[in-house]
Specification:
Number of helices: 4
Shape: globular
Largest sheet: 5 strands, antiparallel
Number of strands: 12
Oligomer: single chain
Distance between the termini: 35 Å
Strand content: 25-35%
Length: about 250
């Protein structure tokens, strides 16, 4: 079992979403789940089970790899073990939960930002690395928040994504645009220029720094008052996104 989550964003004391995948014996992540049945996950820390076992189906709709979103509340910082059985074979992974994080989190206010737009790229070379360019660059994040609308703000870089899922999750978001007209959807890139996106450089945009992100992609969902009600990290499919947007739209 492998974790797609960046543990720097996980916190104790509140519900946390961890995305897990399965790999073969060589460590290659499986694109399709090896079983149609949901997996039953058990979470432990210091030899104590945390909550009840969680039954989670694989999520695959619109994305190139299967994943399992496991949500639980870690009571304290520490090392957590997550285990399951796949066709009778036990699999497990371990996570380190820290005491704090620099990542802007659920319950915080969105940070207003003059993100690049088609009309004013603000000196950023990489407005959108999707091909073709996505339509989610018509207004700034600051303008969307000032309008008092619900916001879905995706930080992702399809061309330079370290997780190789930024393009697919952006397409998943675009696929829901017409179904949720009351939610203003925006996309912002991770790197200002092609040179900044190189492995030996990795200079990020100001908005990535402002939100404290050390990973991509990240989707922020905020209500009309700008309060973050959900943050979906690293990977999501159409099913999980539709559910989150339905709750956001009320």
């Amino acid at each position: 079992m492998v974790s797609f989550s960046d543990t720097s964003a996980l916190l104790p004391g509140s519900p946390q979403r961890v995305t897990l995948g399965l790999a073969d014996r060589e460590g290659v992540v499986l694109a399709s789940p090896p079983t149609k049945d949901p997996l039953v996950f058990t979470i432990e820390s210091n030899g104590q089970r945390i909550g009840d076992p969680l039954t989670v189906p694989a999520h695959t709709e619109g994305i190139p790899r299967a994943y399992y979103p496991v949500s639980f509340t870690p009571p304290a910082a520490g090392v957590y073990s997550i285990s399951a059985a796949v066709n009778g074979t036990p699999v497990a992974t371990r996570l380190q939960i820290r005491t704090d994080t620099s990542v802007v989190a659920v319950g915080d206010k969105m940070i207003p930002f003059d993100t690049p737009t088609v009309a004013d790229p603000r000196g950023v070379e990489l407005l959108c690395t999707r091909n073709p360019q996505c339509p989610l660059h018509d207004v700034t994040l600051r303008e969307a928040l000032a309008a008092g609308t619900r916001v879905a703000f995706l930080i992702a870089t399809p061309q330079f994504c370290q997780q190789a899922v930024c393009g697919p999750v952006l397409d998943v978001l675009l696929g829901q645009k017409d179904a949720f007209p009351t939610v203003k959807m925006l996309h912002s890139e991770v790197y200002p220029t092609v040179a900044d996106a190189q492995p030996n450089v990795l200079k990020v945009t100001d908005v990535v720094s402002a939100y404290g992100l050390t990973f991509e992609p990240a989707l922020y969902l905020a209500g009309p008052d700008g309060t973050i009600v959900n943050r979906i990290d690293t990977i999501f499919d159409t099913v999980e996104l539709r559910d989150a947007l339905t709750k956001l739209a009320g």
